[in-house]
Amino acid sequence: MLTARLHVSNFRVRPALALLAFFAGLCLISGPLEAQQSPEILPLSQVRPGMQGYAYTIFAGDQIEKFDLEVLGVLNNFMGPKQSIILVQLKGPKVEHTGVVAGMSGSPVYLDGKLAGALSLSLGIFAKEPIAGVTPIQDVLNPPPSAVAEAPMQHLGLPTEVSINAGLPSSAALQPIETPLVFSGFQRTTLQQFAGQLQSYGLVATQGGTTTPSPQDAHLVAGDMAGMVLVQGDASINSACTVTAVEGDRVYLCGHTFLNLGDVQLPMARSRVVTTLSSQLQSTKIVNVAGSIGTITTDHLTAVTGKLGAPPPMIPLDLVVHALHSEKKLHFELINHPKLTPLLVAITTLNGLTQNPVYGEGTTLHLTGEIRLQGHPPVEIENTFAPSDSLTPDGFPIALTMQNVFARIFSNTFEPAKVDGITLHVESVPGRKSFSIESAWLEKGEAAPGETLRVRVLLRPYRGAPQVQETTVRVPEQVSRGTTLRLLVSDGDILNRASRGFAFAGAGGGPMGLDQLISLMNRERRNDRLYVGLFVPAPTMLWDDKELPNIPLSQISVVDGRPGPGSVQVLRESLASEASIPLGGPVSGVISLNLQIR
Predict the structure, then answer these.
(1) pTM to 2 decimals?
(2) In CATH, 315-430 is 3.40.390
(3) pLDDT at residue 279, rounded to an integer
(4) pLDDT beneath 70: ranges in the chain
(5) Which of 6, 447, 483, 486 is deepest in the core (most CB within 10 A)?
């Protein structure tokens, strides 16, 4: 009998043990049970002050942790018309120690066991109590129309100086929880050069790292961390915030906007928390960026959303630095976005150049390269940069040049620019090689039509003995006797403006297509040459990207105004002949001389 009972007991116990093992296995799966299911939604209309709830986030590693909270009230129309928030107080040893943490935005908030919203706002700085705002879940999953419309980049909330001027203490202002912009492979000195631009976008730069991609990266649940990839490769830039919900292949995160970019196509990557740094000023998560897991598709006022799967293509940037007998090659990939790419190209180029063992301060840098565009000729890049006496890195002008080039490409009004790739070569030559124009003279003050004249220019090199350079200009045969011509001895920038007028400056008379813009950019003169231009007092018509010198006034009166507005510009002079002397270093200055035709 005893044996029989034991067999019956074993028969009954085994399923129970198996059931316990099943639930134990569930507990070992990363993330809370609510995060792995489709939770029931709590409408905002059912939220009441005093309700007790909880939220999930990661403080370290991959462990999603739970912390408690209490509803203080609902602020109607806070973020905009019909866009309310839930005001809560966080509770528990960890959150009372850290306060609201940068990177915590998007943490799913549950009330009565139902998903109520995403943690998104924090109350001021130096606050003694962790007070936070919660974006209602219906606004996260279904952004209201006013949140969907694309808007300029902005940082929500009242800046400290605005709060003070308005009589509001900064600790009384609800602001979006900071979304860390994680820079891996970047030095602080690089970021300092662009601090103003980063702050104007509402970005908080933090240093972090990368970790090896894993097949598990795409297995997201609520409470995990993910974000946008802006740059990847030998250095990376990524945003990082918390996942609010996952529905099929759709991911909802942040609980507020990142940069309010609207509909986008940006890579999405998994982020893994190393630790949480507690600070009275701003606690933040220190994260490593893992593998790409999909595409960020929208960046709106109440949430950032993404889709799991293949990431969108990025722009490859190859940077090669030469110095003496050394060479270093770097590879990066950047997003293709008109508002962000110019700044990212500048930051990445400066960091790749200056944080390079081949690079050294106090050298003259010669930049060459090209930007390859789909369906268009490449944009050719060539210029030389000499070191300055300021503390600004010598490579900074190269970064600004690249930012300006990309700004001109992406701000064109003709068509979206699709970049296939960027190749840059920087050659470093020891010493500062630059020249200033001190004087210039002709071999004689008058000439006949068709005559060739010698021009001499006195140049002063940096910390060197003055030198004289010589070239020639030819007087056009059709110039009338008694005419006075103007000889311009200058650097490339001044001659560009003199010969192209407002078209070079970007104001009217510009190109009428992307090909024409590229043609204009490729024809701009370089800064390491001395230029001599001879101008005759005959009108030049600038039509799109074409220069039509010596146009009769009768023809100008017929053509001018016929094409589209701004496509025609008339200059009072025509560039009749031009000569240049390569000097191997930047040239600056201008001398204007008169030449009488006898």
Answers:
(1) 0.79
(2) no
(3) 72
(4) 1-37, 124-128, 143-172, 202-204, 280-281, 501-511, 540-571
(5) 447
Q: Say if strands 435-442 and 452-461 run parallel, antiparallel, or are unpaired.
A: antiparallel
DSSP 45: G
| Rg of the chain on CA atoms, in Å | 32
**Whole-Å CA distances, 8 to 3, 15, 208, 298:** 9, 12, 59, 59
Cβ burial of 264 (10 Å; 0-12, 13-18, 19+) is buried
Q: Which two tokens stand for residue 385?
A: 């940069």
Half-sphere CA count of 395, side-chain side, radius 13 A: 22
CA pair distance 367, 581, nearest whole angstrom: 18
Residue corresponding to tokens 């759709």: 250
Q: Which residues of 211-250 are buried (b: 16+ CB within 10 A; e: fewer)?
A: beeeeebbbbbbbbbbbbbbbbbbbbbbbbbbbbbbeeee
Give φ, ψ of 450 to 5 degrees.
Answer: 85, 0
Strand-pair category, 209-210 with 131-136: unpaired
Distance, CA of 192 to CA of 537 (rounded, Å): 49
Per this entry, what is the length of the chain? Answer: 598
**Tokens encoding 189:** 């000195």
**Which part of the chain is CATH 3.10.20?**
315-430
Beta carbons of 297 and 310 less than 8 angstroms apart: no
- Token digits for 433? 């090689």
